[in-house]
Design brief:
With 159 residues, this protein is of the alpha+beta class. It folds into two domains: 33 residues; 108 residues, Immunoglobulin-like. It is 22% helix and 38% strand. The chain has three helices and eleven strands. Strands 4, 5, 9, 10 and 11 form a five-stranded antiparallel β-sheet that branches. Strands 1-2-8-6 form a four-stranded antiparallel β-sheet, with no helix packed on it. It starts with 5 loop residues before the first helix and ends with a strand.
């Protein structure tokens, strides 16, 4: 039978040393995480607003005369500058519009009863104008919160 090396025979000092090393490592990791939050390196994700938005009406027209009317039924008020509207023709797979809501309002590409306070509130209608809407085709309007990157609502409908 072989003799065991002397290191393996004396086990008294090993356990406390490993315990101390693990405690120091955990303390350093926790300090790094706390420092990351304190100094802004690690940011907490922003919550996406919640809102129920539906397609209230379609108006078809010749060329770019069509309109989609959206109704903000309930939920959070949406800040115009932090909201993007994307309109898809689901039937053909074409993206028809992708713009910041504040830009749409300021460029006169919308109508409706937005209150003029920089937000889209419950009960207000938004009319997206100058769209090529064809009767019988399916459309999806995706409302995106640009500050969090999340989708607020994605109503669909057939013109």
């Amino acid at each position: 039978m072989k003799k065991q090396p002397k290191i393996l025979k004396e086990k008294e000092g090993v356990s406390p040393v490993i315990g101390v090393i693990l405690m120091v490592a955990i303390t350093v990791i926790m300090a790094a995480i706390v420092a990351g939050f304190v100094f802004g390196v690690i940011q907490t994700p922003q919550a996406t607003p919640t809102a129920s938005i539906t397609i209230d009406d379609f108006t078809t027209g010749n060329g770019n005369d069509g309109e989609i009317t959206l109704l903000h039924q309930s939920g959070d008020a949406l800040v115009l500058n932090d909201t993007e509207i994307v309109v898809y023709n689901s039937t053909d797979g074409d993206q028809m519009l992708s713009k910041n809501l504040d830009t749409l309002v300021n460029d006169g590409e919308t109508a409706g009863d937005l209150g003029g306070d920089g937000s889209w509130d419950t009960g207000e209608r938004l009319v997206l104008e100058n769209l090529n809407i064809t009767a019988g085709k399916d459309y999806e309007v995706r409302i995106i919160d640009t500050s969090s990157g999340g989708t607020i609502s994605a109503p669909t409908g057939t013109a």
